[in-house]
Amino acid sequence: MDALRLDDQVCFAVHAASRALDAVYRRELAALGLTYPQYLVMLVLWERGQVSVKDLGLALRLDSGTLSPLLKRLEAAGLVRRERDPGDERSVLVRLTPEGTLLRARAEPLPRRIMEASGMGPDELADLHRTLGRLTRSLTESAGRP
Amino acid sequence: MDALRLDDQVCFAVHAASRALDAVYRRELAALGLTYPQYLVMLVLWERGQVSVKDLGLALRLDSGTLSPLLKRLEAAGLVRRERDPGDERSVLVRLTPEGTLLRARAEPLPRRIMEASGMGPDELADLHRTLGRLTRSLTESAGRP
DNA sequence: TGCAACTCGATTGTGCACAACTTAATTGAG
DNA sequence: CTCAATTAAGTTGTGCACAATCGAGTTGCA
Residues in domain HTH marR-type (chains A, B) (predicted)? Predict the structure, then answer.
């Protein structure tokens, strides 16, 4: 077999799956006025209520270059507020507005709909989840020390 | 369990894995002067030698809005040439330059290095590959008819 | 205490991804 | 044969992702 054949490369399969998921989420989230990465940010906020930009970056593995403009758009949409942490003026705290909190209810049915679109059962999805977690960890570690 | 918990969502696992792979490829491909999507295009060209923009889009599931500027950059780098198909002037054929053909040798060791960084065995990777293929197909089909 | 090192976030620049639209070439129904 | 519909690329605009860099604020240690 040819090591460079496109169809044989797992990288492409991951890439393609990621974009296919993105497309499905794009459709489902359009009604909420959110993009998929904005939805991820909202998930963290619905879980924790309030979070610093740094902790958001740790949770989502995104840096400030991605988060700063994204959070500005969420703020412009009236879903979050940003303010300096009084205890440490370097840090910016992001928290939900009432509108942002209310949006949660409308996001609630989403995971089930995506699961149905995936055509896979809960066990299979859990398995995939574990495998991908392991892959991500390995890749991240190997990237750390070249 | 809470359906909206970030850690429980497969979508995030796929997204994170895709970006982690991207990061590893970024490092490996830097020496070749390629980005990861440019590498995917080169894979197709190394396989087929010559391809229309349309067929490239079908193979990679990318539209002209993504491919046009990407191909311009590959052309500026001297790796490909683009010319109208004499048989159908709407179509643009992309083909390798000698430099582009030569680059293949330097890309050859890449899949093995990525496989090592993944920390997974061939069987496990093949399994993941199959699962992701199925997932992508289901999602694409469900996106087709909302 | 004073200043060097570090932390946090924002900004800038490049490139990918996609939607919506434009233009040019081709096809086909009447 | 003609012209409306279709097809192929390209263009424009928006948003995500990341590297590199900057400036303000904090910490630690000499």
Answer: 7-137
The percent helix, strand, coil of chain B (3-state, each to 5) is 70, 10, 20
Q: How far apart are CA B125 and CA B119, in angstroms?
A: 10
Per-residue pLDDT tens for B50-81? 999 999 999 999 999 999 999 999 999 999 99
Condensed to tens digits (0 to 9), the pLDDT of residues B113-130 reads: 999 999 999 999 999 999
The strand order across the sheet containing B50-52 reads B50-52, B88-96, B80-85
CATH class as words, domain A6-108: mainly alpha
- Give yes or no for a contact between B51 and B41, defined as CB atoms under 8 angstroms apart: no
ipTM: 0.90
Per-domain boundaries in chain B = 1-30, 35-106, 109-146
Q: Which residue of B has its CA nearest to A48?
A: B5
The CATH classification number of B35-106 equals: 1.10.10.10
Give contacts of B 8-67 with A, CB under 8 A: 8-25, 27, 36, 40, 43-44, 46-47, 59-61
d(CA B85, CA A112): 47
Q: How far apart are alpha carbons B112 and A101 in whole angstroms?
A: 47
